[in-house]
Structures are given as structure tokens and as C-alpha cells.
């Protein structure tokens, strides 16, 4: 029925046959509560996953999902606690997907429609049946835990009704894929309760209070029930209700989404990922998305966003025709573009013999074209290239303004100052090509650096390579997912926000032996303009960290003057000394 994780032998019936108020309820509740209070985990025996359903889930549905092409799986929106998580440098043989709203079937059908355009009814039925069966078990165990803490029936029901439920499917590769015995590092779940079922091969381990590890056997009909961080807060809240002082409150009320965003940004190597598709300013989820974007930008100067600004057809035209067509132009023609420290054409050089990049379009805040390279490299015109780059710039301009508005709003800047800031900027499209390893001769294509910009939005095509640095110096590899943009703060945003948003350090590696294309949409101050901290971000609690500076003068200082000798040229140029 139920057993502490270090005592799998029990003579009581399976917990699925224990009913509230029935013969075994109090005894089962006592066993569950004792193990959860002692270890935060308990093993339960149940028949919610019979042999047929187990075979359908582990023998067909899961192998079928994980056999899908990586690009298809990455089409699912991911984030700190949901969607698809693909292999990463720290876990090269681990992948996982979370499917929300599984108990009403809608979430499963939505995922099925994304993965299999013509449907996969067997997959949907299997996951939905598993979720429905496990929901009954989860409610029963949850009620036992709450009751054991002295919570009344009405509040137990209210708690259970407040929850959402999901199914996470996980695959762990063999040792030869992983390269090490540890496939997932020790961690706590950001959940209320997790019900974990293993198939055939053991691997799950629970930590005891003495820090020893207890291996959970993959026995049929046995489920490992694990307390998450949210249950810890709930249990502290419930047991603190008595009027005496024996159980003082240990946790304050918290917003779950806000906690997720905070936890994900302070975890080393983790960057928030926010879905902005269909988002309207002032709409029902605007404040939540703004909080997530701002938190990530304040923490690490970067955030990942999902958006439809680069749809399937536009992506194909951009990366499969426009970019290859541009870089196939003879070198002397490309070199005829006006170059400089931050604009024009950058060709191969000794430290990067297989890298080239060009700023191919510059637009104003209203979308008007300031400068286009197409007129220079194709004197007789190239309408297809012009239209593709123009369509991309138009879509990205809206997204860029949305993001800058979110960040400044999130920091407390008033609308009139946000509008003034946006009017002071120009925007540009930069195409980049990274040759294969054979051309390059090394894996590092672009050394770690900060952008001399306000904000950069980067999209990769097919081949990974972009890495963002976290506060602890670790590197976060950004997957080349369709519809996903890496949003990177530049040095000038640090000035505008008075140091609240750090310029992110990033680099490019290309471990694959394939040519790589990327596109960057960035905002910069207009030449001759002065950049200064926004008034709301300088007050008695926040002294001025940066003085006003001329953008073009800083560019010359950083790339042509004494700034080349400094580890932090921005502070050297316009940093404000404490009084």
C-alpha cells in the first residue's frame, strides 16, 4: 500500500483500494504522513498503471515521441518547468517533455497536433488515460497529507481544486551516450507533488536526512511520491494556523508564476524563456510576461522569447536563400560596403578565418529605411532579397519595441520616457555566416564579448552555437529552436537603466561540422545622440552609476581608442564615481 522509501515491505492492501473513512484509511494516512514528514517522499503500491497501459505508455507512446526529429520536438514551447527540454552539455543523453492540462484531454490533443499534423490518437489516448488514473491517486495522497496536518475537509478540497496537473515524459540514454553515470544532478521539484513511475531500469534515488541515497526499485505498480517545494510552503502555512506559538509561519504567501521566474533566473546557467505569441499590451498575461522578461534581464542581461515574427516561410526565405545569396557575392563587392567598428561588412580575419558578417539594413523607429546594402551589392536590384529582409525587419521592429517597453515598464519607467527612448533609436539587421570546422580550424568562432548596442535579438538556423554567460561564469547554450529568439542586453541599455540591466557576455561556438547562419536585429542610439540613465532610475536609493555620453564618441573610444585596453570600457568612459 504505502511504505517509507527505505522500507518497501508492507502487508497492507494497495492504496488505490483504500477509501476515505474506510477500514485502512487511517493506517495508510499515518504511513504516508510519517514518510513525507521525515523524508519528503513515500512509495505507494497502486493499480492505476496496469500491464496494458504500462505497455502502451512505455512500449509505444514514449519511444514514438522521442523518435521524432529534434526540430519537431523543439517546436513545443519550453521553459523552466514546462515544454520540451532537449539534450544539453551537462546532460547530453537526457530529454524530457511536459504536457499540461492532461486530465481534460485538451492539452494532450494540442501537443499531438503540433507533433503529428495528421494526428496520433493512440498517443493522445494513452497519455490521457495515464493522467486520469494518476489524478485519482494524487488526490488521495494529497488528502492524506493535508488531513494528517490537521487540515479540515473544506480546505483540503479547496487546495486540491487549486491545482493544475501535467504529465512529464523523460528519456535517459545509455551510459555511452551520457558519458557519465549521473544523468540528472540532485535537485528539488518546483511542484506540489510529483508521482514518478520508472520502467524496467532503476535510476531514481531519494536523499535521506543523513544525506545518504536510497535507490528506488522500478517495481511494477509502485509509484514514488515526492514532495516539491510548493508543498513545503503549503504545509508550513497549514500547520501554522493554531493560535499557539508552537508553529510560527515559516513562509509568506507567494505567487507561483513569480516564484518560477525568480527561481529560474537565480539558478546558474538558467535563462528565462517567455512565450510572447499573441500578447497584447495591457492584456491578461502582459504583467506576467513583463515580470518574467524583466527578472531575467536584471539577473543576467538576457532572456529567451518565443514569437511568430519569423514564421516558417519567412525563415526559409531568409536562411535558405537571402543569407546564402548575400555571402556568395565576391569578397571585393562585399568589402565595398561602408565598414567600421560596428557597421558595414566584417570579413574573414586571422582569428576568425571562417566568419563574416554584414549589416544589410538600417531602419528608423517608424520602419522607414535609413540605409540598405542591397542597392550597393546589386546595382540592378534584387527584389527578393530586399522584400525578405524588409519583411523580417518589419516584424522584428514590433517585437523589439515590445521588449524594450516591457523591460523599462518592469523597472518603473513612465510611458512618456519610454516613448522618448524608443524615438532616439535606429534599428538594423545583421546577417552572419560561420563556416564549418574545416574552414575555421577551431571550435570558438567568436570570443566572449558584450554588444555595443541597446538590445539585440538573435535567431539561429538549424545549427546551435550561441552561448550566454550566467552570473557564476557558467555558459548556457541556446538551442537553435524555430520561433525562439535570444534577447541580449547591450552596453547602452546598461546606461539607460542606470546599471539595473547588465550587458550580457556571450560567445559563439560551433561544434558541428556544418555551415551556420544567424540573423541579428539590434537597436542602437542614433549617431550624434546622447545616452543617459532614465530619470526614474536615479533617486535617493539608486545613485547615478553612469554619466550622459555621446554614442559615437563611445564607439570610437571602445574600438579605436584607450577603451581597447580596458576590461570595462563603458565604466572607463562614462562611469560615475561614488561621491
Characteristic key phrases:
Jelly Rolls; 20% strand; 579 residues; 9-stranded mixed beta sheet; 4-stranded antiparallel beta sheet; elongated; metal-binding; alpha+beta; Oxoglu/Fe-dep_dioxygenase_dom; 19 helices; 2 domains
What is the secondary structure topology, with strand pairs?
Layout: E1 2-3, H1 25-39, E2 41-45, H2 51-66, H3 70-73, E3 83-85, E4 94-100, H4 106-115, H5 121-148, H6 153-161, E5 166-172, H7 175-178, E6 193-196, E7 205-207, E8 213-215, E9 222-227, H8 229-239, H9 256-266, E10 273-275, H10 286-300, E11 302-306, H11 312-327, H12 331-335, E12 345-346, E13 355-364, E14 369-372, H13 374-377, H14 383-410, H15 415-423, E15 425-434, H16 437-440, E16 444-449, E17 455-461, E18 466-469, E19 475-477, E20 484-489, H17 491-496, E21 506-509, E22 516-525, E23 530-531, E24 549-550, H18 551-559, H19 569-574
Parallel strand pairs: 10-11
Antiparallel strand pairs: 1-2, 2-9, 3-4, 4-5, 6-9, 7-8, 11-20, 12-13, 13-14, 13-15, 15-22, 16-21, 17-20, 17-22, 18-19, 18-21, 23-24
Helix pairs in contact: 1-5, 2-5, 5-6, 9-10, 10-14, 11-14, 14-15
Amino acid at each position: 500500500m504505502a511504505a517509507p522509501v527505505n522500507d518497501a515491505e508492507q502487508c497492507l492492501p494497495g492504496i488505490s483500494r483504500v477509501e476515505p473513512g474506510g477500514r485502512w484509511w487511517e493506517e495508510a494516512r499515518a504511513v504516508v504522513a510519517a514518510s513525507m514528514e521525515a523524508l519528503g517522499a513515500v512509495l505507494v503500491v497502486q493499480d492505476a498503471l496496469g500491464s496494458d497501459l504500462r505497455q502502451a505508455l512505455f512500449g509505444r507512446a514514449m519511444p514514438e515521441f522521442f523518435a521524432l526529429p529534434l526540430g519537431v520536438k523543439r517546436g513545443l514551447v519550453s521553459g523552466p518547468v514546462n515544454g520540451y527540454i532537449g539534450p544539453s552539455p551537462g546532460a547530453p543523453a537526457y530529454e524530457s517533455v511536459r504536457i499540461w492540462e492532461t486530465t481534460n484531454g485538451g492539452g494532450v490533443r494540442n501537443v499531438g497536433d503540433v507533433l503529428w499534423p495528421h494526428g496520433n490518437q493512440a498517443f493522445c489516448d494513452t497519455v490521457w488515460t495515464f493522467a486520469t488514473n494518476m489524478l485519482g491517486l494524487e488526490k488521495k495522497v494529497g488528502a492524506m497529507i493535508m488531513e494528517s496536518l490537521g487540515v479540515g475537509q473544506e480546505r483540503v478540497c479547496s487546495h486540491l481544486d487549486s491545482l493544475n496537473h501535467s504529465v512529464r515524459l523523460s528519456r535517459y540514454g545509455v551510459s555511452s551516450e551520457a558519458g557519465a553515470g549521473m544523468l540528472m544532478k540532485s535537485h528539488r521539484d518546483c511542484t506540489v507533488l510529483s508521482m514518478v513511475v520508472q520502467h524496467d531500469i532503476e535510476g531514481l534515488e531519494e536523499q535521506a536526512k543523513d544525506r545518504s541515497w536510497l535507490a528506488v526499485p522500478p517495481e511494477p505498480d509502485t509509484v514514488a511520491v515526492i514532495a516539491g517545494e510548493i508543498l513545503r510552503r503549503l504545509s508550513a502555512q497549514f500547520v501554522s494556523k493554531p493560535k499557539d506559538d508552537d508553529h510560527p509561519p515559516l513562509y509568506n504567501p507567494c505567487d507561483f508564476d513569480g516564484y518560477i521566474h525568480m527561481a529560474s533566473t537565480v539558478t546558474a546557467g538558467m535563462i528565462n524563456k517567455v512565450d510572447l505569441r499573441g500578447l497584447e499590451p495591457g492584456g491578461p498575461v502582459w504583467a506576467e510576461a513583463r515580470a518574467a522578461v524583466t527578472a531575467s534581464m536584471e539577473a543576467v542581461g538576457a532572456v529567451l522569447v518565443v514569437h511568430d515574427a519569423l514564421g516558417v516561410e519567412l525563415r526559409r526565405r531568409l536562411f535558405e536563400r537571402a543569407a546564402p545569396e548575400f555571402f556568395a557575392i565576391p569578397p571585393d563587392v562585399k568589402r565595398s560596403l561602408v565598414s567600421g567598428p560596428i557597421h558595414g561588412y566584417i570579413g574573414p580575419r586571422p582569428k576568425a578565418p571562417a566568419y563574416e558578417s554584414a549589416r544589410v539594413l538600417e531602419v528608423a523607429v517608424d520602419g522607414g529605411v535609413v540605409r540598405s546594402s542591397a542597392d550597393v551589392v546589386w546595382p540592378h536590384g534584387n527584389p527578393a532579397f530586399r522584400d525578405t529582409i524588409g519583411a523580417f525587419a518589419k516584424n522584428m521592429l514590433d517585437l523589439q519595441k515590445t521588449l524594450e517597453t516591457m523591460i523599462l515598464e518592469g523597472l518603473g519607467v513612465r510611458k512618456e520616457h519610454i516613448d522618448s527612448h524608443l524615438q532616439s533609436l535606429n534599428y538594423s539587421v545583421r546577417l552572419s555566416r560561420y563556416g564549418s570546422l574545416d574552414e575555421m580550424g577551431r571550435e570558438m568562432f567568436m570570443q566572449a564579448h558584450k554588444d555595443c548596442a541597446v538590445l539585440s535579438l538573435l535567431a539561429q538556423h538549424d545549427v546551435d552555437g550561441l552561448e550566454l554567460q550566467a552570473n557564476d561564469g557558467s555558459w548556457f547554450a541556446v538551442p537553435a529552436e524555430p520561433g525562439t529568439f535570444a534577447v541580449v542586453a547591450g552596453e547602452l541599455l546598461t546606461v539607460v537603466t542606470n546599471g539595473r540591466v547588465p550587458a550580457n557576455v556571450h560567445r559563439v561556438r560551433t561544434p558541428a561540422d556544418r555551415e551556420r547562419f544567424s540573423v541579428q536585429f539590434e537597436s542602437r542610439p542614433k549617431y550624434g545622440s546622447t545616452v543617459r540613465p532614465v530619470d526614474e532610475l536615479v533617486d535617493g536609493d539608486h545613485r547615478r552609476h553612469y554619466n550622459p555620453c555621446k554614442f559615437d564618441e563611445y564607439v570610437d573610444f571602445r574600438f579605436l581608442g584607450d577603451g581597447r585596453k580596458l576590461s570595462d570600457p563603458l565604466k572607463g568612459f562614462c562611469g560615475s564615481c561614488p561621491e
